[in-house]
Amino acid sequence: MPQPSWRTCQPNSRRTGGRRDSPGPARGAPSNLERPADGRRACESRPRGRRGGVQGVRVRTAGLRDGVQVSLLLRREAGDRETTKQGMGRAPRCTRLRSSSVGLAPLGRCEVGRSAMPASPSSSPRDARVDLLRGLSLLSIYVDHIPQNVLADITLHNFGFSDAAELFVLLAGFSATHAYNSVFERYGLRVGLKRVFLRCLHIYGVQVVLLIGTFLLVGLWEQAYGTRSIIMGPMLRDGWQGALRGVSLRALPAYLDILPLYILLLAVFPLVRFGLARSVAGTVVASFLLYGLANALHWNLPNVVDPADAAHWYFNPFAWQVLFVIGCVLAIAARRGLPVVTAPPRALVALCWVYAVGCFLVLDAWKLWPAPLPGDFYPTSPLLGIFGNEPKSYVSPWRLADVMAQVYIVLTSPRMAAVARWRVLRPVLACGRNSLPVFALGCVLALVGRLIFRTAEVTVTVQVIVNAVGLGALLALGLILDARKASRVPRPHGEMTPDAVRPAE
């Protein structure tokens, strides 16, 4: 494996008392902080490897008057990917350092790592608006998963045909593209597939833990209070066979059926990315074609919670995949800086506003406030179902257009970008940045809330306790996980000078 060699910036091109390629100035060589005769200098230091090395680092200093102005520029060489494959390790990781007392501009500390796996797969900054929407959807899912919860009157499904589930899946496609697209580009197909597989395995593990925890909690609650579970009852009565159906994802109990959909969609993300890389329009057309066929021909997967009941997946993956693909396309448009995202046409934005407000007015949900919406409210709405399908399971076109309009309005609005930076919304953004653990905790707390509502009288006090404890726990978990991530960020150990620009230990 070629070893990178580093040299230190010298005032000019001729030798000055030491070897040009030495790791530091030789004895007797003038200091790099001394001002040369012409007042300017420029030099380049590059790690030597196959076809240009991992990355080049260029340090330039100009206009040395009262202090030294130094800027560190990072550039990716043409041989980046091939060098990584040859074992040079991951691309340099750079962290900003403070200016020194002599006037140094912020520098970076570059490190040639040991692993080809990136520490952070995304190469572009996160959009706070996406984290805000994800956080709101997670909090809404928790509230909506507790029947008779009075806070369900102010969650997302009250303001349009769609609800938090559609928003969550669409943003899952956006986040998957943001997280894994650069991995495929920089480290190749094998590393990208490995990262996606490990993530799917992680989510599957969370699903199994949630399923086992639900089994135990519901079983113990039934023994203690004499209740009988309608949702988990058939699987509990079947014992280990029911548990095996759940672990194999052949049985998806209500409230535990979102993660299996996410696993399936994330597993096909490499195929979606392959199609989008060749033809965005063709991939979108194929996705909508599959969506239409699923609605017209009633395609779905079986859900064997109760062997006597011929049920299917509540979140039909053949229909819900269109939301995931739309999220991927939106992420690509944002990453490329296309005008449809960066400078949205006013006519398109106005059309989205008209449709979103129209959905709210047609829904008439406010007429039922403060009573929670009845369970059959959506299926009986005449505009929401097509081909006789359940509107949410098959994502009726009205729901699809509604969530697309809402997301487009938010993600193209500079005002929403400013709102997302409000300090008071920081806990919500933290939930959005840590969606999987927050969602898992929300499932457990929602289950406890449902059991409490079934065994105790649903009074104002019970409502306040269940919602305050549950929502408070989710927000606290998001902040704690954010703090843990921040504590793992490498801290600079000292000030940097041009002599210090070399691989970190």
UniProtKB/TrEMBL annotation:
Keywords: Membrane, Transmembrane, Transmembrane helix. The chain crosses the membrane at residues 196-221, 254-272, 279-298, 318-335, 347-369, 403-424, 436-453, 459-481. Residues 1-56 are annotated as: Disordered. Residues 1-15 have a biased composition (Polar residues). InterPro entries: UCP028704_OpgC. Residues 35-47 have a biased composition (Basic and acidic residues). This is OpgC domain-containing protein.
